Model the fold of this input.
Amino acid sequence: MLMQIVLFEGFDPLDVIAPFEVLATGADLAGRPQDEVRLVAADGPGEVTGATRGLGLRAAAALDPAAPGYVIVPGAGGAVAQIPAILGRVAQSALIPQVRAALDAPGVTVAAVCGGSLALALAGLLRGRPAVTHTLGMDALAATGARPVRARVVDDGDLVTAGGVTSGLDLGLHLVEREYGPRVAVAVQELFEYERRGTAWRDAGAEPVGA
Done:
């Protein structure tokens, strides 16, 4: 299984690093070291600059939308006033056709943290689907035709979204529980000395999960 976390110019570093560490640790604790967590970019390998004081990370490969596993889209960072412009550029970038292909591919779940959900919504990928983003973007999310849900994590099957910046930890733990079970998720929480926050929401009358 391949877990791909997408980098784009202006990404928020915590949206990337939090799920990366949680997912990698979950795979290790589950005895699944073959499950790779990889930093990727729409246009291939190379250094990508985040929005926090020029902090950069290196994409190891191009995004493969057909690879079974997860594609995780972070939000944007930096000054609040600059974030809408960054997300708008992402919504019109080469990343969007690749994420659309991932949503259509069997065995692939697309996930997004914070403003990453809004970027996908602005591109029309979340129309009619339950989702969450940062609290400051919930009205904009609704305006795109998505169904905003005020929860920490919203699980709609092949689409999983999470709220504000620190919810990248909760998203990672939710995906670990989906993939490896609650025992491994709890083990990761204990190792990280972190307790999941809020509600992980599922549709169709399913029981909410989460602390």
Observations:
- Residues 200 and 209 are 5 Å apart (CA to CA).
- The first strand starts at residue 2 and ends at 7.
- The chain is about 35% helix and 20% strand.
- The helical segments are 13-29, 83-91, 95-104, 115-122, 138-143, 167-180, 182-192.
